[in-house]
Amino acid sequence: MNAAGRGHRLASLDGLRGLAALVVVVHHCALTLPSLAAQFLGPNSTSPAWWLTYTPAYLAWAGREAVLVFFVLSGLVLALPRLSGGRSGGWSRYYRKRMVRLYVPVLAAVAFTGIVLALVPRTPGAGWSWWMLAHTAPLGPVDLAHDAVLVAGTGWANSALWSLKYEVLFSLLLPVFVLVARRVVLPLWVSVPVVLAGIGWAASAGYELVSYLAVFGVGVLLAQQLGTLSRWAAWIDGLRTRGVAWAGLLILALTMLLGEVWARLATPDPFHWWLLGRPAAVLGAGLLVVCCLHAPGPRRLLSARPLQWLGTVSFALYLVHEPIVVSVATVTGPTKVGVLVTLVAGTALSLGAAVLFHRAVERPSMRLADRLGRSTRPAAPAPVPPRPAATDTVLLGLRTRPAVPPTRVPARAGRSA
């Protein structure tokens, strides 16, 4: 595969990230409707809300599953430069850039949340969903400061920040993941099932930190075996029925991505939702990333200008959308008409705020991170080969900004994305 082709395929992941971020926004808009939010406590009826939650229709607002896609993307994108021989620099440079890229936007997002809370107080209303009621707890500057630290956990002021705790911890532990990936090289059909089993065990036992960090590990494994995946994709492309084969893999990925949904239908025991459902969903997320890297149809769609633009502002969209959505829902009320207004107005306002946030905060933070990354004395230059390797050419064009943090996901039934 030539460098241009690989760069184009990696660009499709930005489109996937942008699409997943939009799904997160829709997810939070949907949770303002009590009947939809109630489904996250377990299947409880055959109402329209049930059909929107426990059928493939849920893909339109599958915020919890978008979390898993984000984590797999982060694992792949952050580990790839270190595992492919690219010019990734030293770890000190990496830490400075990564922490600035995460924390500067988060601090600004927390300040933005405080302003929104002051303008639109979150007072409980009659008939509100449990998700909306969770946002009405008294909050003050100390609570916002606690949220900005991230690694100590976050509250409901801007509950979407919860996943950044895992983004930060994985970023700090990336050298360990890379070291293990370099030392232990196993076929994907061996390594991935082992990691998936660990994910299910940790989730069902209540070890959320271990479980989520292992989801990043699946992305690291994809980065480790990117060449193998490319060869498999080339074999599929050589089939006469390649279109059918790719379509089948994409359908399989989306079906497995809803693994927890199917587990909830199969058993009333939450233990099995996590033991069986989460590994299936993570496998679906990984397979979806592979399809978006290599399948011609998804790759073209995700490389289109609108989704590339959405990928550009996706981190900002994630950081600012929830305070806006909750504020709009506070005004409109917990009705079907209210949730439609929230969906339209909340999404539009969130996109507008994301554009401004990206220009005013995220772009400057990227420039600051680049400057800090160049602030140390350079190491002695290595001999320059007469022709750059194709991998180096690709990595120079690979965006390694942090994956859009996902929405809040319940550690157990009763909490939501």
Provide structural commentary.
The protein is mainly alpha-helical and 417 residues long. The protein has one domain (3-34, 59-375). It has 19 helices and no strands. Helix 1 packs across helix 16 (305-312), helix 1 runs parallel beside helix 17 and helix 5 runs antiparallel to helix 18 (336-373). The radius of gyration is 21 Å and the shape is globular. It starts with a helix and ends in a 21-residue tail after the last helix.
Topology:
Elements: H1 3-30, H2 34-38, H3 48-53, H4 63-83, H5 91-119, H6 130-134, H7 141-149, H8 164-183, H9 188-204, H10 208-224, H11 226-237, H12 242-257, H13 259-266, H14 270-294, H15 296-302, H16 305-312, H17 314-332, H18 336-373, H19 390-396
Instruction: State the end-to-end distance.
Output: 38 Å
**Largest sheet properties:** none
Number of helices: 19
Radius of gyration: 21 Å
**Overall spatial form:** globular
Task: Please describe the structure with a list of short key phrases separated by commas or semicolons.
19 helices; 71% helix; 417 residues; disordered C terminus; globular; hydrolase activity; hydrolase; transmembrane; mainly alpha; disordered N terminus
